[in-house]
Amino acid sequence: MLVVTDDAGDVAPELVEKYNIKIIPINIIFGTEEFLSGIDMDRPAFYRKVASVGDHNFPKTSQPTPYQYTEFFRELMAGGETEFYVTTISEKLSGTYASALAARQELAGEATIHLFDSMGGSAAQGYQTVEAARMAAEGASAEEITARLTRMRDEMVVCFMIDSLDFAVKGGRVKPLRGTIASMLNIKPIMKLEDGLIVEEGRVRTLKKAHRYIVDFVKNRVGDRPIKFAAIHAGAPLAGQSIM
Q: For residue 87, what is the enclosing H or E element?
């Protein structure tokens, strides 16, 4: 059984290789230019291009289409694969799950495709994907993998900071005036993942306070139990390291 995920899940390259995880790319559009994430453009290149383009070329992304999923599976099937376990970004954040579901229906009778909504993205999705691949490599059934991933999903704690609202303003998600005020006051919105959605948890001023808030938030949620912790950044490696 082969494990497949979309590129919204942050899986370390060495783990992708170790467990033979297959990643379907996300469509990235800069004006009239189109790219496939991880194929035509990696993450560092994406952030560099975002910083260099004007507002009129601000990027848009779209989930893999049902056709792209179907063709992706067909390529893997041509290599002899017939069973797939697919993890996706939260269905409440993207149409990716729906595309994968449509592909499963299209390939019914040709391949066995198990779908699992991670109800997250980034490392939350990535952790679940790696666990699915590890279990599949050990011979676990799809039902056993789903049971394990469901427990992981229920225990996940995701909290992050938005350092600047500039990109949110350019993307039309935040009004320019609000972005300007937030920048002037050095306000850092703190967001969390809740029931598959990204919602605001709070606001603080200064980067140091934001990091402290995130650490305290996680501690309060997990208590004394041992955890796996990941610090994910968007083109800011020093900030990611500092929170560890």
A: strand 83-88
Instruction: Report pTM.
Output: 0.85
Question: Could you give the 3-state DSSP secondary structure of residue 237?
Answer: helix
Give the residue extent of every domain in the chain: 2-26+63-154, 159-242
Q: Are 201 and 192 in contact (CB under 8 A)?
A: yes
Q: Identity (one letter) of the amino acid at 181?
A: I
Amino acid at position 93, single letter: L
CATH topology for 2-26+63-154 is Rossmann fold (3.40.50)
Q: Report the alpha-carbon distance of residue 226 to residue 218 in Å, rounded.
A: 12
192's enclosing H/E stretch is strand 187-194
Rounded-to-10 torsion of CA 16, 20, 26, 28:
60
Q: What is the C-alpha separation between 97 and 35, in angstroms, rounded?
A: 21
Q: Using CA atoms, how far apart are residues 104 and 115, in angstroms rounded to an integer?
A: 9
The pLDDT score that the predictor gives to residue 101 is: 98
For residue 20, the SS3 value is coil
- pLDDT score recorded for residue 238: 58
